[in-house]
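Worked problem 6 (solution included).
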Amino acid sequence: MLRIGIPVIGVTDLLRAVAFWTQALDLVVAEEWKSETWRTLDHADGSGQALGLLRSTSPVEPRPRLHLDLFTDTTEEQQAEVRRLIGLGAQAVDWDLYPPEPDFVVLADPDGNIFCVVDLSRAPSGGDRPAS
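Solution. The predicted structure is:
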């Protein structure tokens, strides 16, 4: 049976990416499949694999078709997490495709890979939330 495994991010500096993503998402480095070009990051609580990092020489896509969405529950939490991630080495991205009242902030990891920090209290982006 086919099933989704883990998301994999291509990076140019594996050690820098490990440092960023372990701190950003409270992950730990696993020994499984560890090599000079690969690291598996697990959830710190032991619940399994979370993310793969693969050394890559391909250029970063400015508008990737696939990216990570990281969730927060409130606007205040989103703002605090964006500040924390920037402190860890993420970069703010001048994103020209924001809707009028975005629920997400676009950042790039230290390798330039785009990801979003989403405030679930204001989701979905640009649309009306269903009545509860």
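Discussion: The chain has a mean pLDDT of 92.
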